[in-house]
């Protein structure tokens, strides 16, 4: 294994040489790693412990693991110029979003991923200044072509090789056995299934008050909390508490809030290796006013001009999405990304994950395509989120008509949640109503997240949504509602089972 102080170790030299070969022609692209017959070009990269460990944990092939690991290393590179150069010469495309948000012409962005190394170099040099400005850097004069080829590229690939041989502790972290043991209070059973959650990661600023302030007024808060939130984070944590093996796919900044969210997820046994960390960006924030019985209102700042998941981001995860047991998605990601993700979850109709969707926050300029609707197994919604799906010839919201309307468009099951229970519309189950739970606390975003995680758990456990499963997910909602003021809001399996045992004598 290479040493950080030994920059010319044999491992580093061999890996650097392999990277130099891989930059030629179309660069380090997945198809090349999968079909190349010159195994000596790729073997040093594929046999890296970091790549092999990542492939094992994510249950993907070595070629895809190598592309994702190298891309993450480039994202984590601290030298901005090296990051720009590595991204271009290897044709990785990890900086495409930053370039597009800065207003660079799409033709320039595509040229940086051209199949010709010469064209990528020429584009890099001719747009040197703008590429640096897009990354928030103060650029020097562009180097000569000779300096780029002979000095800068070699230095960049040597640095990348050292990163791959000696990654930082936070590069691509996966929960170890010891870390899982420390979370035993949240996970009493071995992982029962593999779940991918695709959604938002934000920092919640929660004001707990007796009333919501009216226009041009203020009110005193009983408490103020800063806590990781977003439907993506909340559902991932809820699923991990129930013993599932969970990875979160979300975008966030590398600021203090972003670091706190990552640490929170790791503490909760959620895999963070699929997160997209945007350098120099501010993590999204949600401001929440929460009343004593759990009902609330919120304002969301997504910073989506800078932080978002692109179609390319989820394309890189196609194998993980297709091979997991359940995919939980929210409308917190761009519509195009959402629609691509549900499509990736359907590579084989005979063996594919359950797709559970939370349509919040509704897209402001319309719904999703009919094709995307037809690829949703369970749509878990509040009534106000489905207003745009009211049939055009109806001017009032009728849950039965909306439920039937969505079923006609291909949704497998609609779960319309309300106070104390919910309505079920489905072609696949005879259940038409969730068991009513007797709780003074309000159904909320948090209880819906608990519902989605519990639904995924029972679908994986039982293979279908049964009456027993309906009671179980309703109990999970009730537990989350009752515990909303606690530090540990999302229930584990034992908490739900205890709730069911205690409620059984009073049930009808």
Characterization of the model:
The protein has helices at about 10-20, 30-35, 40-45, 50-60, 60-75, 80-90, 95-100, 105-110, 115-125, 130-135, 145-165, 175-180, 230-240, 255-265, 310-315, 320-325, 335-345, 370-375, 400-410, 445-460, 465-480, 495-505; strands at about 195-200, 200-210, 220-230, 245-250, 250-255, 275-280, 285-290, 295-300, 325-330, 355-360, 380, 415-420, 420-425, 435. α20 runs antiparallel to α21. The longest helix has 21 residues, at about 145-165. It is of the alpha/beta class and about 500 residues long. An 8-stranded mixed sheet has the order 4-1-9-10-11-12-13-14, sandwiched between helices. Strands 3-2-7-8 form a 4-stranded mixed sheet. It has a two-stranded parallel ribbon with strand order 5-6. The chain has 2 domains: about 10-165, no CATH class; about 190-490, UDP-N-acetylmuramoyl-L-alanine:D-glutamate ligase (3-Layer(aba) Sandwich).
Topology:
Blueprint (H helix, E strand, L loop, with lengths): L9 H13 L7 H6 L3 H8 L2 H10 L3 H15 L3 H10 L6 H7 L3 H6 L5 H10 L1 H7 L10 H21 L11 H6 L11 E5 L3 E8 L11 E9 L1 H11 L3 E5 L1 E3 L2 H12 L8 E3 L6 E6 L5 E6 L9 H5 L2 H6 L2 E5 L4 H10 L9 E5 L11 H5 L3 E5 L16 H10 L4 E6 L2 E6 L6 E2 L10 H18 L4 H16 L10 H11 L5
Parallel strand pairs: 1-4, 1-9, 2-7, 5-6, 9-10, 10-11, 11-12
Antiparallel strand pairs: 2-3, 7-8, 12-13, 13-14
Helix pairs in contact: 1-3, 1-11, 4-5, 5-6, 6-9, 6-11, 13-20, 20-21, 21-22
């Amino acid at each position: 294994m290479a040493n950080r102080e030994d920059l010319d170790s044999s491992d580093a030299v061999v890996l650097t040489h392999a990277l130099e070969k891989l930059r030629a022609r179309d660069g380090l692209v997945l198809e090349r790693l999968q079909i190349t017959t010159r195994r000596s070009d790729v073997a040093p990269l594929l046999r890296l412990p970091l790549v092999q460990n990542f492939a094992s944990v994510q249950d993907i092939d070595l070629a895809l693991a190598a592309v994702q690991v190298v891309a993450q290393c480039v994202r984590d590179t601290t030298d901005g110029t090296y990051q720009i150069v590595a991204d271009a010469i290897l044709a990785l495309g990890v900086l495409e979003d930053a370039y597009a948000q800065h207003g660079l012409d799409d033709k320039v962005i595509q040229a940086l991923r051209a199949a010709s190394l010469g064209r990528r170099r020429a584009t890099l040099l001719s747009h040197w200044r703008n590429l640096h400005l897009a990354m928030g850097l103060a650029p020097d004069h562009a180097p000569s072509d000779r300096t780029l080829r002979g000095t800068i590229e070699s230095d960049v690939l040597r640095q990348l090789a050292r990163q791959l041989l000696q990654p930082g502790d936070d590069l691509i972290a996966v929960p170890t056995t010891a870390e899982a043991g420390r979370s035993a209070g949240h996970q009493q059973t071995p992982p029962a299934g593999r779940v991918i959650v695709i959604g938002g990661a934000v920092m919640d600023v929660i004001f707990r008050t007796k009333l919501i302030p009216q226009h041009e007024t203020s009110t005193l808060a009983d408490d103020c909390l800063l806590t990781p939130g977003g439907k993506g984070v909340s559902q991932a944590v809820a699923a991990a508490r129930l013993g599932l093996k969970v990875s979160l796919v979300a975008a966030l900044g590398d600021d203090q809030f972003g670091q706190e969210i990552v640490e929170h997820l790791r503490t909760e046994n959620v895999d963070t290796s699929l997160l997209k960390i945007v350098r120099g960006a501010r993590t999204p924030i949600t401001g929440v006013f929460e009343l004593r019985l759990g009902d609330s209102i919120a304002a969301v700042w997504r910073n989506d001009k800078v932080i978002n998941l692109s179609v390319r981001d989820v394309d890189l995860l196609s194998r993980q999405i297709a091979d997991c047991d359940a995919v939980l998605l929210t409308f917190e990601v761009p519509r195009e990304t959402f629609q691509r993700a549900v499509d990736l979850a359907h590579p084989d109709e005979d063996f594919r994950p359950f797709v559970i969707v939370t349509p919040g926050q509704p897209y402001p300029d319309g719904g999703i395509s009919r094709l995307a609707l037809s690829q949703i197994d369970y749509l878990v919604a509040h009534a106000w989120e489905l207003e745009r799906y009211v049939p055009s010839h109806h001017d009032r919201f009728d849950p039965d008509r909306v439920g039937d309307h969505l079923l006609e468009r291909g949704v497998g099951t609609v779960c319309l949640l309300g106070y104390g229970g919910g309505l079920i519309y489905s072609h696949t189950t005879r259940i038409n109503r969730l068991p009513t739970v007797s709780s003074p606390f309000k159904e909320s975003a948090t209880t819906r997240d608990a519902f989605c995680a519990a639904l995924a758990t029972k679908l994986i456990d039982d293979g279908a949504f049964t009456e027993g499963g309906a009671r179980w997910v309703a109990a999970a909602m009730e537990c989350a509602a009752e515990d909303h003021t606690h530090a540990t809001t999302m229930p584990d399996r034992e908490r739900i089972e205890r709730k069911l045992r205690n409620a059984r004598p009073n049930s009808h």
